Amino acid sequence: MADSLVLTGVKDVKKHTGTEMLLTRPKRGGDTHSLKEWWKTGANKCYVMCTVFDVTTSTGTVKLALNTKGESSRVRIDHDGSFNFSFYNVGEISRAALFTDAYELIEHYVFPSISGGKIMTVTPASGGVRPTTAVAPSSSAPAPTPTPTPTPAPTPSASPVDVEGYYPLYTTEADADAAGDGSSHSHTFSGVTYYMPNGVTYYHGDYNSGGGGY
Q1: 99-134 pLDDT, tens per residue?
Q2: Domain residues of the chain, as ranges?
Q3: For the chain, which residues score pLDDT lower than 70?
Q4: How many CB atoms sit inside 10 A of residue 179's CB?
Q5: C-alpha angle with apex 147: 145 to 149, nearest 5 degrees?
Q6: Is 144 exposed, middle or buried (0-12, 13-18, 19+ CB in 10 A)?
Q7: CA angle (206 as vertex; 210, 170 as ends), nearest 5
Q8: 20 to 30 A Cα–Cα from 52, which one of 65, 102, 132, 174?
């Protein structure tokens, strides 16, 4: 997760390669945010106009503010997906700052127009803390399909009986079906219908007579 862009003026974003840095505008309208001078201590602070980006990192969202001066401002910003930023070809921008999502100062940057050389990174002694809660993925994987619990095979509720050498017989079709392959056939004796399961060894009149069954 990394991003790069070129900012010209206070709002024109070009050569944007990712989605982690997002230009934001104030709710009151306009293109720049009014922020207190973060590089000064004490109560006597003035306000400066800044271009602000919401930056998504691997552990949360922060805000990157740049003290842009107007249409002549320019800078290329590279972001590594964490909390590291690189600035190139800086023009008419003297400072930048990294804030928490609640605008608590984490660190700030002094650009060459003031530092006179390399970009300086300043970390205040009592500043905001970088977020540490992992960000959930933008697209969640589908929930796994639960494995269905197999339905237990039915068992007969009664024991089989022998009628005139016909065995096994059940008084209900459901019990006979449960005892065999799920199907059965019927036999009637003295006006009473019995059911014999299919798919098992059964006897037609020769049960207990030494027959081998069917």
Answers
A1: 999 999 999 999 999 989 999 999 988 878 888 865
A2: 3-122, 161-204
A3: 1, 133-141, 209-214
A4: 24
A5: 145
A6: exposed
A7: 125
A8: 132
